[in-house]
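Hello again, I could really use a second opinion on something today. I've been staring at a protein lately and its backbone has me curious. You're getting the sequence in one-letter code plus the fold written as tokens. I'd be grateful if you could look everything over and explain what you see. No rush at all, and the record is pasted right below:
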Amino acid sequence: MKIILLKDVVKVGKKYDIKDVAEGFALNMLIPRKLAVVATPHAISNIEKTKANDMAEKKIQEDLLAMNLQTIKGLTLTLKEKVNEKGHLFAGITKEILVAEILKATRLNLGTEYIVLDKPIKEVGTHMVTVEAGGKKVEFTVVVEAQ
């Protein structure tokens, strides 16, 4: 059965992909959970329009973010976290936490996909974090202090 995915589904595909899956899987799992719709010609044309609109909106937001990256350049965020006696954090500082802190400090709402962070920050000290959008890169400082 041909379906159009409305959201990313693990081991099936990404949003807006047209996939051929087992009929039972589509009818019992994907469609009732609103993860997919049946791929009719009308639905395909609607999804193509929606996909084009989403891509255009994402491009506009990325361009706007690229222009506003200068507000992040040189920014220093100071976070106070609980640590053990060796200076390691109990809970790491993730991209989501950094996005929330940037929003508080600069009122700039950026997505986690723009922050380049290989793994969560787990140690006290000064850390440089990169934000990349629209082909531009800027760095800001995260200072982690013991609470």
Remarks:
- The chain has two domains: 2-61, 68-146.
